[in-house]
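#onboarding

Welcome to the new folks! Below is a worked example of what a typical request in this channel looks like: someone posts a single protein sequence, and someone else replies with the predicted structure as tokens. Don't worry about understanding the tokens yet, we'll cover that in week two.

Example request:
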Amino acid sequence: LFGKANKAVEKLDRESIAHTGLNTTDFEILEALLHKGPLTINSIGKKILLTSGSMTAAVNRLEKRKLVERVQDPADGRRYYLHLTKTGLKLIRSAYRNHSENLMAIFSCLNEKEREDFARLLKKLGKHAAKLDGD
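Example response:
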């Protein structure tokens, strides 16, 4: 039941960003930067559950498209922060707006109380699953 619902939502979710030319991973990275501001590559990887190698490949793709830039931390030259470029900011703002509207349409079958309950229960389930996994 959960898996089937997840696949249906995920399919619509991917379709909502397909016109941008971004894949889900690239969208998640840009979305994190949009909402959190500049972040280290490592911290983004932890937030969106990507390995270091996958993050490097994704950042390289996004840099090639001039959507992000790496900025060396002046206090620690080994650390780099990702920043959205003007092009990246424009793209993710538009993509996120479309994405949000799509999610609102998906969840419109639930009333406000049901959406609140659903969000609360998903958080509870996620925390429990993380605890079982040892995180």
